[in-house]
Amino acid sequence: MPSPKVENIYPIEISPPDISPYKNGNVGIDYITCFDSNIPGPHVMISAVVHGNELCGAIALDWLFQNNVQPVRGKLSLGFMNVEAFHSFDPQSPTESRFIDEDFNRLWLPAVLDSQRSSLELERARKVRPWIDTVDLLLDIHSMQNLTPPLMMAGPLPKGRELASTVSIPEWVVSDAGHAAGRRMRDYKDFTDPESSRNALLVECGQHWEKAAALRAIETALRFLQVTGTITTEFAQNFIADRPNPLPQRFIEVTDAVTIQTSAFQFVENYIGMEVIPKAGSVLARDGDKEIQTPYDDCILIMPSRRLNPGATAVRLGRFQDSPKLSV
């Protein structure tokens, strides 16, 4: 199944880096490289191009490689995920390289990974899965369809919100359980086990092709590596010193995910995300004969999609919550 075509309404300000020098890696899996400090510490990983048209993560990993990043404790892995989709990126039709056969970020349920199904993305997920199984702390770098403020997707548990708080950017932190269409890599196994110390974040750095998204991706990666104790403050500050001071974070709990039921789904307005709808019962969309309404006052729209296909998530609905109580 080809990646759905969506009209591009945004300028392309960045270009995909050449990742071919990183193909061989050093762990026996193409496009995954691990640096080992030989000092006890967690295995930390940063992943990119889970979706092939999201360039900022590749730019961030390339920056880390070019600047000779090395862990001062534990292990650091840098991994490019859906590389075939990334290599298919065409600036003349930039939305079509999200995936080749199916969404790589909807496959991370063991029952799916262990099934008899076959696709290019499933085969790649199966290859990288054993390495993901060894990761203690994961940052998965993404970007968004619309020119929306950057978001940290922290998952449904307090430990995700706490880790997001220590990273300190971006301003908006979203606590959610993912998509009805399938499980994300950030929600794989122990990452969503409250009894496990393993943890993961997914950062949405802004619109896919804005220059600012690439800069945010680098900064988020450095702050993540700094708070996990993987790199020195000095290494991070060489880049962070020129960035704006972080804004106080605000936390949002997703309570509902609107899953598209029919091919007639339409929003009533051109939402781009982070709109706050003041009144409960306001109509957001129509799905065939059904009206989609806000369930409560001050409902926040999280990442409304422009890919309005049955079975996909149209939008997530959230409300403000208190900042997490830190246990670290």
- Topology as H/E string? EEHEHHHEEHEEHHEEEEEEE
User: Based on helices, strands and strand pairing, what is the structural class?
Assistant: alpha/beta
* Annotation field: number of helices: 7
Q: Cα-atom Rg, whole angstroms?
A: 19 Å
Question: Low-confidence spans: pLDDT under 50, at least 5 residues?
Answer: none
**Could you tell me the mean pLDDT?**
94
**Would you tell me which CATH topology of the largest domain applies?**
Aminopeptidase
The helix content, as a percent range, equals 10-25%
Summarize the structure.
With 328 residues, the protein is of the alpha/beta class.
Overview features:
single chain, 328 residues, alpha/beta, Aminopeptidase, OB fold (Dihydrolipoamide Acetyltransferase, E2P), 2 domains, eleven-stranded mixed sheet, 21% helix, globular
Question: Mind explaining what this structure looks like?
Answer:
The chain is of the alpha/beta class and 328 residues long. It has 2 domains: 20-248, Zn peptidases (Aminopeptidase); 254-320, Beta Barrel (OB fold (Dihydrolipoamide Acetyltransferase, E2P)). The chain contains 7 helices and 14 strands. The protein is globular and about 60 Å long. It starts with 31 loop residues before the first strand and ends in a 7-residue tail after the last strand.
Topology of helices and strands:
Blueprint: E1 32-36, E2 43-48, H1 56-66, E3 75-80, H2 83-87, H3 110-113, H4 120-132, E4 137-144, E5 151-153, H5 158-167, E6 172-175, E7 199-207, H6 211-227, H7 233-240, E8 250-259, E9 266-267, E10 276-277, E11 283-287, E12 290-293, E13 299-302, E14 313-321
Parallel strand pairs: 2-3, 2-4, 4-7, 5-6, 6-8
Antiparallel strand pairs: 1-3, 5-7, 8-14, 9-11, 10-13, 11-12, 13-14
Helix pairs in contact: 1-6, 6-7
